[in-house]
Amino acid sequence: MNVDLVSGALGAEVNNFDLNSLSNKNFEEVNNLLLEHKVVFFRDQSLTLEKFIKIASMFGPIEEHAYVKGIEKYPQITRIIKAANEKNQWGEGWHSDVSYDLTPSKVIILKSLKIPPIGGDTVFSNMELALETLDEDIKKIIQNKRAIHTSNGSKFFVENYSKMESNGKIGEQYSNEHPIIRTHPETGKKILYVNPTYTKKIVGLPDDESSDLLNNIFKHQERLDLSCRFKWTENAVAILDNRSTQHYAIADFYPERGLGHERVMDRISIVGDKPF
Ligand SMILES: [Fe+2]
């Protein structure tokens, strides 16, 4: 497989590979690229929905989204739609997906169906590097500490998007505690595992100390030298390791610059482990 690195921090674009030819034989090669680069991209992929599901299921059991209804006949697929005149898009703000779950998703796979002529890139960030480069004093404080991750409810996912539909679990809130430094279950590497969208509090610290410390960590996690930016084209596929990364969907849809265009992505997520 021929690979171009997207930045010095993470991300690899795999060239000349048709995901339709992914088999048990070459799966390990793709998974190794994923573990090494944390997000891998493939362009110009023509996949049926059945094939998309089949490829995703090679990474593990597929889970349905906590709040959003899947597409008809294929509830495993969440269709993320920014309607033409909407300025917001799903996934704005730094986060790792569903970190409020007891077992947050292992891998997320996105496939672009419709992309505005400009705008709507996604930025990914390497949380192993974030831990390595974190201030030593902060590292000492967060050793063996845990943090509470809480979902923002159903509205967060559907309210601003006319074409996104709730799965009916409107009032449900999910909250779980995870270690702030988690260990990658496949590579054994240490990962900084808090995010500004869902992490609300450090267990065992007074509120003000917890929020000061979290804000310092969040600021550090935003460092651009930990990130890579992907410009979508139609029929591109991104496979991301949701354990060791965060991502941010940029909503730079301004009049005359991408606004007025629909953006549509299909998303599948894979069941993860309980962070340890
Ligand atoms: Fe996301």
Structural class: alpha+beta
Assembly type of the chains comes to single chain
CATH architecture: 4-Layer Sandwich
Low-confidence region ranges: none
* Whole-number mean pLDDT: 95
C-alpha geometry: globular
Helix content: 10-25%
Tally of alpha and pi helices? 6
Q: Helix and strand string, N-terminal first?
A: EEHEHEEEEHHEHEEEEHEEEE
Distance, first to last CA: 33 Å
Number of individual domains: 1
| Bound molecule types | fe (ii) ion
Assigned CATH superfamily: Clavaminate synthase-like
CATH class: Alpha Beta
Any idea of the CATH topology? Double-stranded beta-helix
Q: What portion of residues belong to β-strands?
A: 25-35%
Main pleated sheet: 8 strands, mixed
Give a count of the beta strands, DSSP E runs of length 2 or more: 16
If you had to describe this structure to a student in words, what would you say it looks like?
The chain contains six helices and 16 strands. It is an alpha+beta fold. It has a single domain (2-270), classed as 4-Layer Sandwich (Double-stranded beta-helix), CATH 3.60.130. The strands form four sheets. Strands 1, 2, 3, 4, 5, 6, 14 and 16 form an eight-stranded mixed beta sheet that branches. A three-stranded antiparallel beta sheet has the order 13-7-15. The longest helix has 15 residues, at 207-221. Bound molecules: fe (ii) ion. Residues 91, 95, 97, 247 line the site of fe (ii) ion (FE2).
